[in-house]
Amino acid sequence: MSADSKDTEAVFGFFNEIGIISQLSGNAFEKAMPQGMTLAQFSVLNHLCRVGDGWSPHRIARAMQVTKGAMTGTLKHLEAKGLVVITPDETDGRAKRVTIASEGRVMRDACIEAIAPMMQALLKHIPASDITAALPVLAAVRAWLDERRN
């Protein structure tokens, strides 16, 4: 096996582990969430808290890599729960803008608090310093992938 093949195999293994971690953590996260929240709903709230709000549903869908229809459904559920506010775009009457409500920020924090026991249990097996050390690599991979998406 060539060095290139070994490197390719290592990168595949890296992404395979990320995929499995995503499935397992997403499932555990959704089971722990309060008030019938879904992972998709939390992801939108977290995204808006992290990068700011006022985005169009289309732009949020692109960021989340889901269809506009799927995002519309998620946003309708969040709006019905009073967690986001959807208003007409002031510059384009056909478009909408999504703003996170204060209740949405509270819910995001409640979801994070709900998974805190899982995070604390993980820290008993893997030191926080190891997780912190992995963050720059993961962030670089995310940024590289983000630059190349459609």
Relevant terms:
150 residues; Arc Repressor Mutant, subunit A; single chain; mainly alpha; 71% helix
Strands of the widest sheet, in order across it, are 1-2
**Helix segment tally:** 7
What is the CATH superfamily? Answer: Winged helix-like DNA-binding domain superfamily/Winged helix DNA-binding domain
Q: Indicate the CATH topology.
A: Arc Repressor Mutant, subunit A
Q: Tell me the Rg in angstroms.
A: 18 Å
Strand count: 2
Provide the number of structural domains: 1
Largest sheet: 2 strands, antiparallel
Note poorly predicted spans. Answer: none
Overall shape: globular
Strand content: 5-15%
Distance between the termini: 33 Å
Please give the share of residues in helix: over 70%
Indicate the CATH class.
Answer: Mainly Alpha
Q: Summarize the helix and strand pattern as letters.
A: HHHHEEHHH
Could you please describe the fold and organization of this structure?
By secondary structure, the chain is mostly helical. It has a single domain, classed as Arc Repressor Mutant, subunit A, CATH 1.10.10. Helix content is 71%, strand content 7%. It contains 7 helices and 2 strands. It has helices at 3-32, 39-51, 57-64, 68-80, 102-114, 116-123, 128-148, and strands at 84-88, 96-100. Strands 1-2 form a two-stranded antiparallel ribbon. Strand 1 (84-88) and strand 2 form a beta hairpin. Helix 2 packs across helix 5 and helix 3 (57-64) packs across helix 4 (68-80). The protein is globular, with a radius of gyration of 18 Å. It starts with a helix and ends with a helix. The model has no long low-confidence stretch (mean pLDDT 93).
